[in-house]
């Protein structure tokens, strides 16, 4: 899983690995992390993380605003971005293309980015994509 990939990348002393995971309430962040770490997801306690960013913005616009703010951070300059379009196992899930449009991903020009449809609950689209992207990004750097 993710931990073995990170351990492999960390074994190279000149290779720095940082992961930032963001998402709305009930977006599946904890489930996704547990899937990536190959941990049991059957007993997940809901977590609550509040944000002070754009409190007056409509809930649906906050992710795009927060992503734009993060991508302007100097420490994240040129860092690849992998967006998981989670909960694709639900009929009401927005497709990855719609999420990409809503996040204005097409305007990102200074880094590699990818959006991946997935279901953290079933694990579909999670492990393979991350392994492929980390391998590619490590090779390109």
From TrEMBL:
Binding positions (GTP): 86-89
Protein name in UniProt: ARF like GTPase 3
A Pfam match: Arf
Record GO terms (molecular function): GTP binding; GTPase activity
Gene: ARL3
Organism, scientific name: Aotus nancymaae (Ma's night monkey)
Signal peptide from the UniProt entry: none
Keyword Metal-binding: no
Protein family (similarity comment): Belongs to the small GTPase superfamily. Arf family.
Annotated keywords: GTP-binding, Lipoprotein, Myristate, Nucleotide-binding
Domain of life: Eukaryota
The keyword Chloroplast belongs to this UniProt entry's keyword annotation: no
């Amino acid at each position: 899983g993710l931990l073995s990939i990170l351990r492999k990348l960390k074994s190279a002393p000149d290779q720095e690995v940082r992961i930032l995971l963001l998402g709305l309430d009930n977006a599946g962040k904890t489930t996704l992390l547990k899937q990536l770490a190959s941990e049991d997801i059957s007993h997940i306690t809901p977590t609550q993380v509040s944000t002070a960013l754009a409190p007056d913005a409509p809930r649906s616009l906050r992710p795009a605003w927060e992503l734009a703010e993060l991508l302007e951070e100097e420490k994240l300059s040129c860092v690849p971005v992998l967006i998981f379009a989670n909960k694709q196992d639900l009929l009401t899930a927005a497709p990855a293309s719609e999420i990409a449009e809503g996040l204005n991903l097409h305007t990102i020009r200074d880094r590699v980015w990818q959006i991946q449809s997935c279901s953290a609950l079933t694990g579909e689209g999670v492990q393979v994509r991350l392994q492929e992207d980390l391998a590619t990004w490590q090779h390109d750097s």
